[in-house]
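lol ok so funny story. i was supposed to be doing the assay writeup but got distracted and ended up predicting the structure for this chain instead. priorities right. anyway since i did it might as well share w the group, maybe its usefull for someone
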Amino acid sequence: MSETQRVRIVLVDDQPLIRRGFAAILETAPGFEVVGEAANGEEAISLVRETQPDVVCMDVQMPVLDGITATRELHADPDVTAPVLILTTFDHDEFLFEALAAGASGFLLKTAEAEELIAAIATLARGEALLAPEVTGRVLSRFVTNGGGAITGTGALAGSDEQLRPKELDLLTERENEILLLVARGYSNAQIAEELFIGPATVKTHVSNALMKIGVKDRVHAVIWAYENGIMS
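and the output, tada:
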């Protein structure tokens, strides 16, 4: 990977030893660069705005300003494009759902292996979202439990009541509609390409267009959007 392709990372954690440990792991990985460290959410916001990293690794519980509130503020800032990877020791649903609602693009426990951390950051840097399989299951279970619409037999997305059908769906082309359904079902770009007999680059373009039209920034939030709007069950 060339210097211009390096993944620039900001680490946010109130414990210096944890920040140093993560930095030591990432700085030995090819193509990664830690451009700053912050000890709380308030410092993180200023640092991210100043350095404009490619990925932010954010702790949850910190003094001054917690990680979820900081994530929410960064997500609302139009000048900040870096996705947030939540790193926490707390495997609690409340943190997971609050982080996703705040705009986080990934969620990883601090007990993960070094290779998992590197892979997670690389995934977010490519513009994709990341949740561990067991975490994704809990997200979907929550929305299924809360109820929703149904998938139509034609393979299109539709609400259970036409009057409640999300208006964003009208903005999608037939192909984008079809691909969004597969994204909501958890298909990767490669799986979508194989399912629809089209090229991966074409899939990536359609996914990007569909996410933009429904107003979400990544695949994880597309899944949540689909369940929240009753178009998956």
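The chain has two domains: 3-131, 143-228. The longest strand covers residues 32-38.
back to the writeup now i swear
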